[in-house]
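Supplementary Note 3. Input sequence used for the single-chain structure prediction.
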Amino acid sequence: MGSKLKNIRLALKWTGFFIPFTFYFCLFFIAAYVGYSWLQHKAGIPDSAYRDIFSLLLRFTSGFCLILLSGGLIAVIIPFVFFIIKKRKNGINFSIDTKPATEQSKQPVTLHIDPILKPILGFVKIRLKYDTQNYSEKFSLIKRSQNKLFTTELDGTYYWDLPEIKEYRIEKAVIYFEDFFQFFSFAVSLHTTRGFHTYPVTRESKSIDAFPRKTEETSTRIEEIKKVEGEHINYKNFESNDDVRRIVWKIYAKNKELVVRIPEVLDPYASHMYLYTSFFSSFDVENNEVIRIPFLNYYKTICWSVYNQLVKKGFDVRYIADQDIPKNGIGSNEEQARFAISVSKWHRDKELRDFVKAKDASVVIISSLSDPEQVKQLLESNGRDISFVFVPLTQGLNKQNIGAWLQWLFVQQEKDSIAIYRTSWSLSLLRLKVMKNEKQIKQLLDQYERSTILHQSN
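The predicted structure, written as discrete structure tokens, is reproduced below.
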């Protein structure tokens, strides 16, 4: 019964996109009808010149409004019919292109449509259907600069504020033709198959104390040991998360450049650093939107930041996923790691003790959803050799203070998704359980020097 109601709601929502009259038209029609009726019955002197002039003005105003509405309707129908004819002849070229976002959740989407006519003084807007049952907002494209006065092509970019770091699939695009007053909106749907991924971005985080371990068999040497002139030390530019004790002050005194030493790895068999990230959840979070979206985004962002920090330190990092990752043909290890983090999900399949290979692991990242008992076992057996990074998920949202509660209750409604997530998390039944779990893991990690608790401000 529930699935049927959901399907009915989705069908009604999809049908609603193709209603040719907008909400603005309905408001205008009601206001015009009420105003006209009221003015018609307004008191006046019967058979007087005043009443005749007043009636003439009413007819003139009504005729002028009718002309405006007719002009807007014709301006929309002509490009709409043209587009329908071209579509039936398979003459529409429609393409969607994406590129990695420079800001988290703001995904640039470039669209191209031709041939298409823009309504005179009107608009062409677009809505995208993705992941079977989700829809974007209706949007206008940020057009590329064109010197042509008249064109049958539509090119532009839309910066899509997507809620999750994951793989998205666009299935349809709805093209809207709207008049200047946005009273009429004629829609046409176009099929497309386009997939893309939103990626986590790098945030500054606390420096992690980690080193490669002897992970390869001694019968297999690395192909080449890098030679370094002078000292057995590499140099790199100083970054905010580097240890200030490794700054080479002689170089700074000479060149005014801050550089730090990177000790050369002397063991030719300890050539790789294995980074294990666990997305295992000891709780059932399938129906908890806060954990599935903002907490997962937060965790992915820190996982990628840790990976990027280790790479910048000069290590050859091997990312180990705890779930099956679809193949995407990406070549470099760094791109593969970023893709794997992007498409990972919370799961209950592979537990921490079954996932981490203690003899290989250099860094293990765990979350507030990890099982404290398994974390304890791993720490007791390998806490001196493995660097553990703990991500307290509850830091992913700012705390809901009493002022925010009063504002939500009496002043205004929620304005953004983060505020909604904060309120939902405050009311969640899982909140106290996760916080208790988080506290237990923190107490376990405090006993070991090579453990790091990472959190970042939003």
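Residues 121 and 180 are 5 Å apart (CA to CA). Residues 228-266 form one domain.
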